[in-house]
Amino acid sequence: MKNKPLSDLMVVHPFFEGMDRDHVDFIAGCAQNKRYKAGEFMMLMGKEADEFYLIRSGRVAVEMDAGNRTYVVQTVGEGGIIGWSWLNPPLSVRYDVRVMDDVSVFAFNAQCVRDKCDADPDFGFNITRRFMKLVVERLMATRLQLAELYA
Amino acid sequence: MLDTSLSPLPPVVHGAGDPMLPVKTRIVDRKQETADTFTIELEFENGSEFTFAPGQFNMLYTFGTGEVPISISGTPGTSKNIVHTIRDVGVVTSALSGLNVGDKVGLRGPFGTYWPIESCKGKDIVIAAGGIGLAPIRPVIRHVMENRDDYGRFIILYGARTPEDILYPEELGQYKSNLDVEVWVTVDRADRSWRGHVGVITTMITGAGFEPEKVAAFVCGPEIMMHFVIMNMNRLGVTNDQIYVSMERNMQCAIGRCGHCQWGTEFVCKDGPVYRFDKVEHLFNIRQL
Q: Within 10 Å of residue B27's Cβ, how many Cβ atoms?
């Protein structure tokens, strides 16, 4: 039996909602399936931002190491996106990402995606807009947290 | 279309025919819920029973200090016990916090409109509460739990600042152990000892995956929270006539005479505190009203 192409699996992820199939196929060339076990770190602060992830299942914690204490800034689960530091210099990871429950992800090679964005500005704009939406959502969430939403 | 007629129930006057006259109650139980929040259970000194509908509030009077409006957070209906969960944030609530079992509290009430849970039978019930906002909505939760067959899906979304600030954690755990109740709890910040969700309550709304046309939503918490919760529900297709909110204003007389709680054309103490959102949407976005 022939395996489904990765792009067929990817289209169901919310990140690709409404995206032209050509663009999904284009980015699929930079993707691979990966799995991480609970307790593993998918990303470490200060390391090169060479990948980003779309979560298929499981859950991760975005953490900030404050020396004597580790703060969980956010948890992200199925359908979520992890990593946007890959898009712009300095291309270094800003937070630790620890796996809470075993995760299955589509992992994207950042250099590959950046090259494709440069090669096809229409595709690049599409990807940038989707990440812009993510950044705005995270910014809004952070502002709400700062506003002591439940006080 | 859900219930539009959220008129207040006829006031039950315990104070010798005068709704302004507090009646003496006695604290029969006290529980510290979180660092700044506690629950007291009151009984009338004369032994009479108390009836309220979910969402209504009482005016609690600490002798020598003053009076404060507090939502009733016990099981709705008629009982000898009157349950209030209170956050210690001001002079009167601080005085209430200092009282113990056996101490006396003056009570007027119940007042105000109520969550129209009876007219939402057959609907999927979505509760979205933040912080102390879980207390005024607890009677709805208890009602639905006791009449589970009358409702469709039951989804409770609750946000708190930290795991230590989560109200009624054991009770939420019990609800969650029911296979037909979905309880989603999130906190704004935590350390690694917290295994649950971290993020604002709005992030859970999409994840809850409800069918918008079947929903009756009950939203209770600070206005900023309600604003963003409603915005996200609207985005999913829940319309404002499916959403109920509980408002908080400076309620003093509780019978719509003093005007302290005036909110546009509304007196929150008697026209509210529970409103169907489409009826007050125009007031909701006016700053400093």
A: 17
| Cβ within 8 Å, pair B161-A144 | no
For chain A, the residues whose C-beta falls within 8 A of a C-beta of chain B are: 61, 63, 69-75, 77, 79, 98, 100, 141, 144-145, 147-151
CATH number at residue A61: 2.60.120.10
User: Would you say residue A1 lies in a domain?
Assistant: no
- For residue B197, the chain A residues in CB contact (below 8 A) are 75
Q: How far, CA to CA in Å, does B251 sit from each of A102, B119, B262?
A: 50, 27, 9
Using CA atoms, how far apart are residues B160 and B170, in angstroms rounded to an integer? 15
CB atoms within 10 A of CB B228: 21
Cα gap B182→B153, rounded to integer Å? 8
When divided into structural domains, chain A yields a total of 1
3-class DSSP assignment, residue A35: strand
Q: Using an 8 Å Cβ cutoff, are B220 and B131 in contact?
A: no
* Domains, chain B, with CATH or none: 23-110 (2.40.30.10), 118-246 (3.40.50.80)
Please write the tens of the pLDDT for every residue from A19-68. 999 999 999 999 999 999 999 999 999 999 999 999 999 999 999 988 88
Is the pLDDT assigned to residue B14 strictly greater than 70? Answer: no
Quick: pLDDT tens for A100-113: 999 999 999 999 99
Give B222's contacts (C-beta < 8 A, 6+ positions apart). A149, A150, A151, B130, B131, B133
**B191 and A147: CB-CB below 8 Å?**
no
Q: What angle do CA B164, B221, B143 make, to 5 degrees?
A: 90
The number of C-beta contacts closer than 8 angstroms across A and B is: 66
pLDDT tens column, B18-48: 788 899 999 999 999 999 999 999 999 999 8
pLDDT in tens, B198-226: 999 988 888 788 899 999 999 999 988 99
CB-based contacts of A96: which residues, under 8 Å, 6+ apart? A41, A43, A44, A45, A62, A63, A64, A65, A70
Any domain includes A151: no
Q: What contacts A59, CB < 8 A, 6 or more positions away?
A: A75, A76, A77, A78, A99, A100, A101, A103
| Domain, as residue range, for A61 | 6-145
